[in-house]
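ok so i was messing around last nite and threw this chain in just to see what happens. nothing serious, just curious
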Amino acid sequence: MKRMVLIGCVVLAMLAEGCIWGPAGFAQQPRTAPVAIEGDHFVREGKPYQIISGTIHYPRVPREYWRDRLRKARAMGLNTVETYVFWNLHEPRPGVFDFSGQLDVAAFIRMAQEEGLNVLLRPGPYICAEWEAGGLPAWLIGDPTVKVRTRDPKFLAAAQRYLDRLGKEVGGLQVKHGGPIIAVQIENEYGSYGHDKDYMEDIHQALIHAGFGDSLLFTSDGADQLPNDALPGILAVINFGPGDAKRDFAKLAQLRPHQPMMTGEYWDGWFDAWGKPHVHTDAEAQAKEIDWILSRGYSLNLYMFHGGTTRGFMNGANMGSGAEARYEPQTTSYDYDAALDEAGRPTKKYFLLRDVIEKHTGIKAPALPKGQPLSSFPEFALTESASLWDNLPPPMESREPLAMEALGQSYGYVLYRAKIAGPQKGELRIDDLRDYAAVYVDRKDAGTMDRRLGQSSVSVDIPADGATLDILVENTGRINFGPHLPDGRAGIVGSVRVNGKAVEGWKIYSLPMDAPGAVEHWSKASTAGPAFHRGTFHLDKVTDTYLDTSALKKGFVWLNGHNLGRTWDIGPQESIFVPAPWLRAGDNDVVVFDYNDLPATSLRGLDEPLWSK
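result:
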C-alpha cells in the first residue's frame, strides 16, 4: 500500500511539473504560461527562459511521420519547434480554404504540444522557404495589377482574409489559451526586400485582427537589414549562417541593446538548386558556434532541424538583381544537410548538436525513437507509353500567347500551338519565358530554351507548305526571394516571334498535370517526344525507400497517385524519397512524364539517396 501511495505521489508531482506520459516515456510538456521579455532576456513563470528551437515544415513531411520527427526534435534537446504556414496551399483559389489532411496545421501544432514542444509560428503572408512564390498564391502573384508585399489595398485585403481564416484554425492554440504557440512572426525578412515600415505595421495590425495579438510578436531578418523592418516595441531577431554569430549578434546588440538576443534562423545547412553541386556543410564548425550562442544565454532556432521534401511543383527559385542575375530553381529534395536527413534519420550533426544542447541545459534528452527502415527493390521496366499529343484537353484560343494564370491554372505545363507559314528559316524568339520550353515543328524537336541559362531563342526551318508550331512550357518554380518576386506569372509572358514577326492565332492547352488517371491511349510501342510512361513494381514488405530517377531526363513522377516531385538529368538530385505510407504491399504504380524519349527505361528502389558526381 505504501508503495502505491509513493507511486501516486511521484505521478502527481510529475504532473505538477508539466510532465506527460507517452510511448517514448516521460516528456516535459510546455507549460501553458507565456514567454515574456524582461530586459535583455526571456522569462517564463518568473524564471529566465532560453528558446532552443528547430524548424520542421509540416507540408514537407508526410503526416504519418509528424510525430516521429517531433519526438526526434525532443530527443535532440529542443524545447520548441518552428514552422511557416503556406498560404498558397491553404487558399488554392480565392476564398477557398483547405486545412485538411496533410494541411491540418492545427493538428501539427497540437501534436507538437503532446510531444513536449513549444511552437514558433511564422504565418507570412510571405514566407520564402525555397517554396513556390515564397508561399504567395499563384492566383494572387500572377495578377500584374496586385502589388504584393506593399500597402496595395488588394494585397492587404487578400492577406487579411487569409490571416483571419488561419486565426480561426490556430488562434486558440496560443499559449495564453492553453496551446503551445509562444510567439508569432510579423511578415518574413521584409528588410531584405523593402523598407516601408507602414506596410510592416499593416501586417502587424492584420495579425492582431486575426487573433494573434495574444502571442509574443517578432520580426526576423539579416542583421544589416533589420533597420528596414524592425518595429518599435516588437522583438527583433536575426538570421545568419555559420561563422557570422559573433559579428551579427554584435550588430543586433547595437541596434536593440536592451532586448533578448535570438537568432530566428541559424542556417545549419543549405538547399540544392538544379544544375548545381549537392550541398555539404561543416557539422563540427556549426556545433562550436551553437555552443558559443548557447553559452551566452542567447536563444536560437535551427533552420532546418529537418528539411524533408518539396512535393509536386512547389519548389521555388532564386534570382538576384542586375544583369548577371540567373534564375535558379530548387530541387525536389529539401534535405538541407540538416540534423535529420530527408528520410528522418539522425546525422552526425544531430548527435553533435544534442551533446552541445545537453551541456548547456543540463537536461538529459529523451531516448531517440527507433527510426523507420529503408530498403531497396529490384529494377522494373516502364512498359507502356502515352504520347502527350494524344492527351491534350480542349484548347483556349487567343490572338497572343497567354500566361498560365490567364488560363485559370497555377502550376504544371502549358502547350502553345500555332500555324506558321513557310518556307522560312530563322530564329524563333520568346520575349519572356517562364521557365523552360521545348519547341516542336510538326512534332519534330527543334530545340529547347532554359531560363536558367538565359536562353530565349532556337533556330527553326519551316517547309514551303507551312507547319504546326508547338511550344511546351514548364513552370519550373516561381521566384521565392528577391526583387523579381512581384511578377510571378508563368508560361509565356511576352510575345513569340519568328524572324522578328510576331506569331498570332494560338491554341493554348492547359496542362496542370493534376492526376495520372486522366492519361489515356496507352501503348506498348515506343513513343517519341513528350510522353507519359508507366510501370509496376511489386513489394512483399513496405518500407521507406528512394526511387532511382537517374534514367529519366526532364519531367516528374507520380507513384500510386502521389506527385513525388520533379526529375531533371542536370542533377544534383538523382533519386526521390518515397515514404512507406505512400507504398503498398503488392503492386505499386509509377507514371513518369518526360519531355524526352525514354526507350527501354527501368527504375529501381534504393536504400540511400543518389546524387550526381
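not much to say yet. The CA atoms of residues 200 and 229 lie 7 Å apart.
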